[in-house]
Write a structure and sequence with these properties.
Layout (H helix, E strand, L loop, with lengths): L4 H20 L4 E2 L10 E4 L4 E3 L2 E2 L8 H7 L7 H6 L1 E2 L3 E5 L2 E5 L5 H20 L5 E7 L4 E6 L5 E5 L5 E5 L2 H6 L2 E2 L6
Antiparallel strand pairs: 1-3, 2-3, 4-5, 6-7, 6-12, 7-8, 8-9, 9-10, 10-11
Helix pairs in contact: 2-4
InterPro entries: Syd (IPR009948), Syd_sf (IPR038228)
Membrane topology: Peripheral membrane protein
Family: Belongs to the Syd family.
């Protein structure tokens, strides 16, 4: 059975929320997003928010502004990855890597995400590197997990270098192999 990026992301998000509920009795929590408005917030703690994913309700359901700014065509899978839902970033494991899956929190965050993707692509162009679109951060600020805009493969890349390692043939396979990680706030 073939599934879409949106379906794979929704399934992973449901697993992530379920794991939080099973381990803590509460939805996912974030201290980084405390004080930042979002329709995802279901409860506020002392210095954190509890959130649940919401349908992506913003007018632009694509990253066409990124494509237009650089006069390139983006891999089609990147659009639904960032426009299926509003959610907090989600911690996960993938083949021994602990990562934070980047998600859109609110309208301002969507604008900031597009600006960051443009900046990332401009830097790569300046350094004569093949274009990638980041989808997850790692502990190291020098590495990230990205979608290769030429091949559609998911890669581990070192920022500003040609060093790359293919992790998955595409975004759907990558998402389907993620294991949610719950780190309750102290």
């Amino acid at each position: 059975m073939n599934i879409t990026v949106s379906e794979a992301l929704t399934q992973f998000t449901e697993q992530y929320v379920s794991k939080w509920m099973a381990q803590t009795g509460l939805p996912p929590a974030s201290s980084d997003l405390y004080g930042v408005p979002s329709p995802c917030i279901v409860r506020t703690g002392e210095n954190w928010v509890y959130w649940e994913p919401q349908s992506f309700s913003l007018q632009d359901k694509n990253l066409n502004k990124v494509a237009t700014a650089l006069d390139i065509e983006l891999q089609p899978m990147i659009h639904p990855f960032y426009t299926t839902q509003l959610a907090g970033d989600m911690k996960a494991q993938f083949q021994g890597h602990t990562l934070n899956l980047v998600q859109v929190w609110n309208e301002d965050d969507f604008i900031r995400l597009q600006e960051n993707l443009i900046g990332h692509l401009v830097t790569q162009k300046r350094l004569k590197l093949s274009p990638t679109l980041f989808i997850a951060t790692l502990e190291s600020d020098l590495e990230m997990i990205s979608l290769c805009n030429l091949t559609g493969e998911i890669i581990l890349e070192k920022f500003g270098s040609k060093e790359k390692q293919v992790l998955a043939p595409d975004l759907i396979h990558f998402i389907q192999q993620l294991s949610p990680v719950v780190e309750p706030l102290a």
